[in-house]
Amino acid sequence: MPTRNVSLTPEQDAFIDEVLEKGEYRNASEAMRDAIRALQQRRALESLKLDKLRLSIQAGVAALERGEYDEVDDADLDAYLDDLAASTSR
Questions:
Q1: Euclidean distance between the first and final Cα of the chain, in Å?
Q2: How far does Cα 34 stand from its chain's mean position?
Q3: 3-state secondary structure of 46
């Protein structure tokens, strides 16, 4: 298994000591591997969210190009948004 040396802040080092003392991990390497797995999962989830956002943007742009939108006067904007929020919460 490859070995790497990493520098930790005093707070990070203390945290690792804490989880080791609690018996959550057998050693610091195990704790670090778990932290890296969590980072990988978070990044994968963020990537999926970005993909979903890009698809939503594309759908919105396509709807605009088809003329599927409502024009709202500035004076009516608050009421329009309130109605929109009420209809999506049902």
A1: 53
A2: 19
A3: helix
| Contacts of 67 by beta carbon, 8 Å cutoff, 6+ apart | none
- How far CA 71 is from CA of 41, 58, 68, 75, in Å, comes to 41, 20, 10, 12
CA distance 13 to 74: 54
Residue for token pair 């945290």: 15
Beta-carbon neighbour count of residue 59 at 10 Å? Answer: 10
The pLDDT profile of the chain, 90 residues, written as one tens digit per residue, is 899 999 999 999 999 999 999 999 999 999 999 999 999 999 999 999 999 999 999 999 999 999 999 999 999 999 999 999 998 877
Q: Give the Cα separation of 26 and 71 in Å (integer).
A: 62
Q: Is 66 exposed, middle or buried (0-12, 13-18, 19+ CB in 10 A)?
A: exposed
